[in-house]
């Protein structure tokens, strides 16, 4: 391109971002910018402009026409989009169009307006707790624009965008005692039914894209199941379609009304629908109740980027210029330190960094997107032990090393995918979130309990005099979750610690150990497969006290765990 000052720059608004396209002879500007960038947002029509394809590449990161290259000068924070056209630099501001998402929400309301005693009870609670409303709606800013656009595309009532407030207070990491997870609080069985992936690496119930698709698919199914009755469909989302339809049939048999308000439903469900309707009433006219709701911008908050292969999340955060906590907040579905090697190979990123991230990632070779460790197999080692040691999966080790079974030989070398940073740096990974919950101060005395064969939440809770639900919650679990032998649980109890050692009296023995030179509490605990907390409690000593050679310690050991 010559430096002809008559060259025309056209501005095209694409999903809330303004891009510049050179009007070159023989090149359609939009075609020149075609790429694989996909934004998780609505159409230009939502912001008063002509709808444009969602498949235009943002910010000149990649062009399909020779002679046009995207560049970002060093030090550019990503707030401005740059185009480099044969050495001619043009800066095009990229403002984020403003708009009130709640005003758009009101225009899409379609549920019946109901104001009865049940709705009023919940409405009064919200009015008395304006700080809660402020927190929740501010938290919703990151996710609600995407959800409203999905509802719009499907032609669903916009009140459903308020359902994550009822379910999770718009917290993607919310987890209930019923094993429901994520913004939409989806249980494992429903997730499997509607194609939401769940494995060691990834739980799509917490991912805003996968969970929203699954939740809206489920609600659409329930709407058909209930013959187009949205209140019954929403009740079914809480109680299950079978529960609601049985209640309908029961009322039909007794010649009673079959609308939501007359059905014999569980107590939780009877409050669930009124809670949503109360929120809708508040959003419809907050001033009528003396409430001022935070403004939610009607602009996209994130874009989805296909990363193509497994990627260390610490590296991803560095490339995007984000801290790890922010990256996890946008990508809440990832359980570990990296994306799932089996997919989805996708990251959700703030729109303002997506373009720069895509360019930076393109420069990283596939083999350098995670770190690799060479491990020599020791005599007696198993593949499962190696996977646990390196915080990865058996499948990842098999795939990386090209074998399908579990047989490994001492002396062989394995290539293991490992995290680039200490695991503690991945503060929103599943293990880190659980540790944070376990370390939270609560009332009572803190005990650590290592799960033994045959134990359950029920037996452990009975032993310490606490409820099953409390025990599960203290450990970021649900009562229905499976316990693993050797798993550490934290217990907070007002009563004294159980006098005996482990619960299985037939397999435990009281042991007196004489401290040797160089011994520490850690080494003794490891040697006899007990915890340091147990040693401290059994012997009424301090963790910080130095052990003396010749000192006698009492402990209760499981004889089945002392084979080596």
Explain how this protein is built.
Helix 3 (117-128) packs across helix 11 and helix 8 (208-225) packs across helix 9. The chain contains 21 helices and 13 strands. The longest helix has 18 residues, at 208-225. It is of the alpha+beta class. The protein has a three-stranded antiparallel sheet. The chain has helices at 29-32, 101-107, 117-128, 130-140, 144-154, 163-168, 188-193, 208-225, 230-239, 241-253, 267-284, 313-320, 324-330, 351-362, 383-389, 394-401, 430-438, 457-464, 468-474, 521-528, 532-539, and strands at 9-14, 17-22, 38-39, 80-85, 88-93, 302-306, 346-350, 371-376, 413-418, 445-450, 488-493, 508-514, 552-558. Residues 1-97 and 499-506 have low confidence and may be disordered. Helices cover 35% and strands 13% of the residues. Strand 1 (9-14) and strand 2 form a beta hairpin.
Number of helices: 21
Helix share, percent: 25-40%
Kindly provide the radius of gyration, computed on alpha-carbon positions and rounded to a whole number of angstroms. Answer: 29 Å
What is the number of beta strands? 13
Structural class: alpha+beta
The percentage of residues in β strands lies in: 5-15%
Q: How would you characterize the largest beta sheet?
A: 3 strands, antiparallel
The strand order across the widest sheet is 3-6-7
- What does the overall shape look like? globular
Average pLDDT confidence is 78
What oligomeric assembly is this protein in? single chain
């Amino acid at each position: 391109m010559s430096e002809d000052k008559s060259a025309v720059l056209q501005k095209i608004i694409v999903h809330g971002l303004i891009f510049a396209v050179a009007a070159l002879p023989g090149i359609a500007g939009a075609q020149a910018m075609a790429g694989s960038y996909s934004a998780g947002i609505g159409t230009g029509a939502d912001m008063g402009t002509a709808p444009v394809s969602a498949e235009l590449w943002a910010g000149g990161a990649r062009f399909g026409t020779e002679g046009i290259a995207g560049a970002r000068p060093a030090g550019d924070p990503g707030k401005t989009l740059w185009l480099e056209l044969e050495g001619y630099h043009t800066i095009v501001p990229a403002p984020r169009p403003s708009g009130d998402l709640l005003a758009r929400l009101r225009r899409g309301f379609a549920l019946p307006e109901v104001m009865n005693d049940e709705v009023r009870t919940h409405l009064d609670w919200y009015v008395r707790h304006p700080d809660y409303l402020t927190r929740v709606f501010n938290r919703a800013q990151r996710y609600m624009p995407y959800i409203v656009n999905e509802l719009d595309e499907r032609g669903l009532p916009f009140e459903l965008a308020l359902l994550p407030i009822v379910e999770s207070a718009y917290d993607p990491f919310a987890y209930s005692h019923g094993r429901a997870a994520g913004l939409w609080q989806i249980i494992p069985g429903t997730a499997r039914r509607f194609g939401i992936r769940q494995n060691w690496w990834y739980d799509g119930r917490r991912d805003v894209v996968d969970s929203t698709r699954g939740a809206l698919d489920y609600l659409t199914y329930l709407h058909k199941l209930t013959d187009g009755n949205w209140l019954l469909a929403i009740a079914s989302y809480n109680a299950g379609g079978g529960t609601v339809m049985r209640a309908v049939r029961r009322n039909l048999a007794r010649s009673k009304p079959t609308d939501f308000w007359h059905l014999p439903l569980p107590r939780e469900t009877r409050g669930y629908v009124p809670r949503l309707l109360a929120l809708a009433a508040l959003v419809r006219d907050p001033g009528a109740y003396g409430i001022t709701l935070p403004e939610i911008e009607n602009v996209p908050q994130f874009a989805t980027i296909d990363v193509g292969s497994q990627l260390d999340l610490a590296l991803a955060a560095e490339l995007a210029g984000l801290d790890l906590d922010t990256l996890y907040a946008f990508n809440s579905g990832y359980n570990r330190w990296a994306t799932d090697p089996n997919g989805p190979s996708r990251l959700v990123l703030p729109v303002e960094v997506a373009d720069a991230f895509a360019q930076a990632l393109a420069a990283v070779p596939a083999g350098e997107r995670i770190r690799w460790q060479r491990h020599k197999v020791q005599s007696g080692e198993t593949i499962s032990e190696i996977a646990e040691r390196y915080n990865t999966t058996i499948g990842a080790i098999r795939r990386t090393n090209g074998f399908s079974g579990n047989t490994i030989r001492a002396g062989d070398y394995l290539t293991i995918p490992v995290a680039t940073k200490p695991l503690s740096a991945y503060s929103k990974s599943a293990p880190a979130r659980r540790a944070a919950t376990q370390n939270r101060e609560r009332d009572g005395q803190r005990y650590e309990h290592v799960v033994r064969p045959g134990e359950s939440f029920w037996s452990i809770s009975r032993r310490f005099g606490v409820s099953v639900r409390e025990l599960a919650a203290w450990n970021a679990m649900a009562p229905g979750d499976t316990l693993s032998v050797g798993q550490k649980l934290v217990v907070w109890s007002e009563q004294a610690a159980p006098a005996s050692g482990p619960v299985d009296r037939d397999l435990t023995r009281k042991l007196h150990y004489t401290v040797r030179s160089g011994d520490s509490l850690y080494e003794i605990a490891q040697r006899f497969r007990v915890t340091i907390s147990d040693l401290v409690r059994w012997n009424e000593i301090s963790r910080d006290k130095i052990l003396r050679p010749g000192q006698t310690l009492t402990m209760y050991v499981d004889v089945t765990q002392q084979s080596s």
